[in-house]
Design a protein that fits this description.
Length: 420
C-alpha cells in the first residue's frame, strides 16, 4: 500500500468547515456541528456539581477536554486554570471566560413545568446559576476556534475561573493573566428572564456592584432580671437598624441606585440572659462607586452614634465595605460586539435598561486587565419550564440556548482577531 503524504492525510482529519473561508454560514454550521458535544458537556457538569473553591473533579474533567484540543494548560492557585490557543501569527490577544463553580443549593427534580432532564448527583449541591452552561459554551467555542486556528491571527486565552460565587478565585486569576497583555475579554452569563435565542448586549453598567454589611453592637451581658446592671445591645441594635433605615432614605443621593438589604440580626440564645453583643449583617447593591462609598459612611456614622447613645460600641468586621464594583461593558467593545453578533443572529440582539441585573459578578475585576464585554444569552422557555430565578432550586436552562451563546462567543473572537 502506498504511503499517504502526511499533509494530505491531515486534510482528511480536518473538519470541512475549517477549510473554507470563515463567514457567517461557516460559523453557524460549525456551531451546529459541536452542539451535541456542548450538550453532553453541560449534562455531565450539571450532574457533577462542586461548590466554590472545591471544583477539583470539575477542573480535572475540563483540563482533560482541553488536552484533547492540544492546548497547553496553565494552572492558577486553587482550581482555576487557563488554556492558550496561539496561532503563531502576529495579532491581538483576547480572553474568553467561564466560571466553574456550583452552589450549595439542593436541587428540585422539577423546573417550572416538568421534570428536569438533568439532575445533580451530589446531594445538596447544584448548578442553580447556569455556570455549567457557561463552561459548556466555552469548551464548544474552544473546539471551534481550535479548528479555525490556521485561519486566525493572534492568541486566545480560554479562562476557567474558580469560585465566582464566593470570589475565591478571581484575584489569583487576574494576577496570573497580567503577563499575557490581553487586549479584550469576553464573557457571558445565561439569563433566566430572557427568551431562548435572545442575546442582551448593552454598553455601560449591566450588573450591580456589591458590598458587605457586617458589624457587632457591643454592650455588657448579664441577668435579664436586672437590665440596669447590664448594657443591653439588643435594644441598641434595634435602634441602630431603625436609624440606618431612616438615614438611608434621607441622606443618600436619590438619583443613584443604591439598595440596602439587611439579612441578619443575631444575638442571645437564652430567655433570661442579656448577651454581650448583637451581630448585624447584609449587603448593599450599587451602580455608582461614589454613591456606595457614601452609603457606607452613613452606615458607619449612624451605627456608632446610636450605639453610643445606648452606652454601647460598634465593631466593624474586616469585610465591611465594597466587595465588587459593577460590571461595566466598555462602550467601544460592546458596540463592536453587538454589530458582530447581529450579523450572525439578526433580530436576536436586545438592548435597553430592563435587563440590567442587580446581582454582582467577579467578571467586573477583569476590567483591571483590558476592556471587557459581558453578554446575556436568554434561557427562558415556557414550554420546557425553564426560566426560574437564578439561585432557585427549580432553576433550569433550555439547552437550545447554548448554541446562541457559543455562536456569539465564536463570532466575537473571529471578528476581533480577524481572519487571514
Amino acid at each position: 500500500m502506498k504511503a499517504i503524504p502526511v499533509l494530505l492525510f491531515s486534510l482528511f482529519l480536518t473538519p470541512v468547515f475549517a477549510q473554507k473561508a470563515i463567514n457567517n454560514d461557516v460559523i453557524l454550521k460549525s456551531v451546529e456541528s459541536v452542539d451535541p458535544y456542548v450538550r453532553d458537556v453541560h449534562a455531565y457538569l450539571h450532574e457533577h456539581p462542586e461548590v466554590s473553591g472545591k471544583e477539583v473533579e470539575t477542573a480535572r474533567y475540563l483540563q482533560a477536554e482541553v488536552a484533547k484540543l492540544g492546548l497547553p494548560v496553565t494552572k492558577v492557585p486553587g482550581t482555576g486554570f487557563y488554556a492558550l490557543l496561539d496561532t503563531h501569527r502576529p495579532g491581538k490577544t483576547i480572553g474568553l471566560r467561564a466560571d466553574i463553580d456550583a452552589l450549595p443549593v439542593p436541587e428540585s427534580e422539577v423546573n417550572l413545568k416538568q421534570k428536569k432532564r438533568h439532575l445533580s448527583k451530589n446531594a445538596g449541591v447544584s448548578h442553580a446559576c447556569g455556570h455549567d452552561g457557561h463552561i459548556a459554551t466555552l469548551l464548544g467555542a474552544a473546539k471551534i476556534l481550535t479548528q479555525f486556528k490556521d485561519q486566525l491571527r493572534g492568541k486566545i486565552v480560554f479562562i476557567f475561573e474558580e469560585g465566582e460565587e464566593t470570589g475565591s478565585g478571581i484575584d489569583a486569576m487576574v494576577e496570573a493573566l497580567k503577563p499575557l497583555h490581553i487586549d479584550a475579554i469576553y464573557g457571558n452569563h445565561l439569563k433566566s428572564n430572557l427568551n431562548t435565542g435572545e442575546l442582551y448586549i448593552q454598553e455601560g453598567p449591566i450588573m450591580a456592584g456589591t458590598g458587605t454589611v457586617a458589624f457587632d453592637v457591643i454592650g455588657r451581658g448579664g441577668h435579664a432580671s436586672r437590665p440596669d446592671l447590664s448594657i443591653n445591645p439588643v435594644f441598641a441594635a434595634a435602634n441602630v437598624l431603625t436609624g440606618i433605615s431612616i438615614a438611608w432614605n434621607n441622606q443618600r443621593d436619590i438619583t443613584k441606585t443604591l439598595t440596602l438589604g439587611i439579612t441578619q440580626i443575631q444575638g442571645g440564645e437564652i430567655y433570661n440572659v442579656i448577651p454581650n453583643s448583637v451581630f448585624i449583617g447584609g449587603t448593599i447593591r450599587f451602580f455608582d462607586g461614589t454613591a456606595a462609598e457614601k452609603g457606607f459612611e452613613v452606615l458607619r456614622k449612624v451605627s456608632e452614634d446610636i450605639a453610643r447613645a445606648h452606652n454601647c460600641t460598634v465593631k466593624f468586621h474586616d469585610n465591611m465595605g465594597i466587595l465588587l464594583y459593577p460590571v461595566v461593558n466598555d462602550d467601544a467593545l460592546t458596540k463592536f460586539t453587538r454589530k458582530a453578533v447581529e450579523e450572525i443572529y439578526p433580530g436576536k440582539v436586545v438592548t435597553g435598561q430592563e435587563y440590567i441585573w442587580y446581582a454582582a459578578e467577579t467578571f467586573s475585576k477583569y476590567s483591571q486587565l483590558a476592556p471587557t464585554v459581558f453578554v446575556f444569552p436568554g434561557i427562558k422557555n415556557a414550554e420546557l419550564g425553564s426560566g426560574a430565578e437564578h439561585h432557585n432550586d427549580q432553576f433550569d436552562i433550555d439547552e437550545n440556548a447554548l448554541q446562541y451563546a457559543a455562536g456569539a462567543m465564536v463570532q466575537f473572537a473571529i471578528k476581533y482577531l480577524g481572519a487571514k
